[in-house]
Records
---
Amino acid sequence: MGIVYQAERVAAGETVALKMLNHRCIYQPGGLQRFRREARILKSLKHESIARVYDFFPAYKTEFLVMEFCSGSTLAQAIATRGCLDEQNVRKLMGQLAVALRYIHSHGIVHRDLKPSNVMVSDSGTIKLLDFGVVKLDSVAAEWRDMQTATVSGSVLLGTLRYMSPEQFAGRSPDSRADIYALACTAYEALAGRPVIEATDIYGVIAQHMRFALPPRDQIGPGVSLEMYDLLKRGLDPAPDRRSVDLNQLAAWAGPMDLGAH
């Protein structure tokens, strides 16, 4: 949806992230309105595990979002560098993400694009959830269903294909359970060092989603516990009604990650 720059708020002498909305989005049906609505929503969120949105404004025939600058590396970069992470670190990661998701879900917001590249890990081991570019409000679900139908017909799917829940591929408006599915995908990738869905084209992704079966514990990663395996099994269940993962229970795992350990 856009390009992100490192910038400085001159008056405050503060480094920020400046997200420029792709000009194509301005001319898509509902694109500008959606961006402005999301900006207003995100500006109201204040949580230590979520990158803050400070302001938004029009310029250069598009819109800009002024966001908190987050230093560190993304979870995707950590996985690419290190391969699989040990379960203790993954538990701490999932706990922090559960706290962030619990907060946004309590405000009626669904992230819809949770994935390793949207999770920033600081040097101190705390995380920031980034890029709410495709969030939706439960209260405007009908409007989003119309938008998604139009978007899918244009061969562009909201969210990232590998981490999208099966109901999204079926054209159903996702709720918080779609974030649970993406959370389980993220946990699996951190443990295994590879994504749940490895195909890179839409047809391959859909085919792998349709025939996906969770592999045995010893084929996911070293030392995967029965408890973690059960979490993955429930979180990756294709039926949202059976995706029974308790964010409150996961939140108890929250703690700083130690990426110096393996």
---
Amino acid sequence: MKMLSNVGQRMFAQLFSWALFLAVAATLAGLCVDDSDAAENAVNLCAKTSRDVLASCRSEAESDFLLANARCDNLSAAEQRNACRQEAAAEEEDELMSCKEQFDVRQSACESLGPGPYDPAIDPANFVDTIDNPYFPLTPGTTYVYEGQTSQGLERDEFAVTKKTRVIMGVKCVEVRDTVRVDGKVTEDTFDWFAQDIDGNVWYFGENTHELESGLISSIDGTFMSGVNGAKPGIIMKAHPVVGNFYRQEFDLGNAEDFAEVTGLNSSINVPVGKFHRCLKTKETTPLEPDLLEDKYYCRGVGNVLVVDEVTGERSELIEIR
């Protein structure tokens, strides 16, 4: 075999050294990417989300204060300006306290949910057309009627399972119209969208809600649709609930964030529509209303039969199924 000349040997050595350098650099770059991914995965993303929302809430409170203060500056009388500024400062303090209370609820939820992000995989092929979960059956054409005395008056809630459907994230959802009246006047009119997966879990894909005053829409807070602006579906009812289950029922940060925890499977309930045994009990909370705490009871073959506000003691009972 013919030997390389000295010049050829030097050129070969230089090329080999450069190739070796590039190979080592590529390997190190790959290790850096892997380390970066590992570091990202090691972060408690649930807790980080809570902190991010806290920062957003505080920023909004400060923005509201600055705008309120600007309005105060346009009052002619010094006494009025000072009173206005004091009120603005007090409102900012209340908003900041609310931000902290919401943060505490989210952080507490993260202890049960774990450190990962909330990003459920939704495959339309994994959903069925019928919602027959024994604790949350939704048969089209059925209406559930609830009543209860509240501080605002007699509240009547009609939860009507329509024959309409809506496709969300590729999943065909059952549409439910939920209409609330207080002393005969409509105060809330909402369309909810549910779907059941092949395992029997019932998912909540969103709602279009209108709160009304004197017949006019006063708020659409809570309205969301999964797949839009980061909103994601949650589970309304597990296929096989177990005491201690803690899960998200909806996910739209700062707008729709209900949590549920299964606290019992053997409750006996007596409501106007009948007596039930071995009913499921859940405790439901939301960071958007830190003081809200509701116990809900679901009975096999019927669904939700009773809601109890643990703070006020108010009850909403199932009085009729038609």
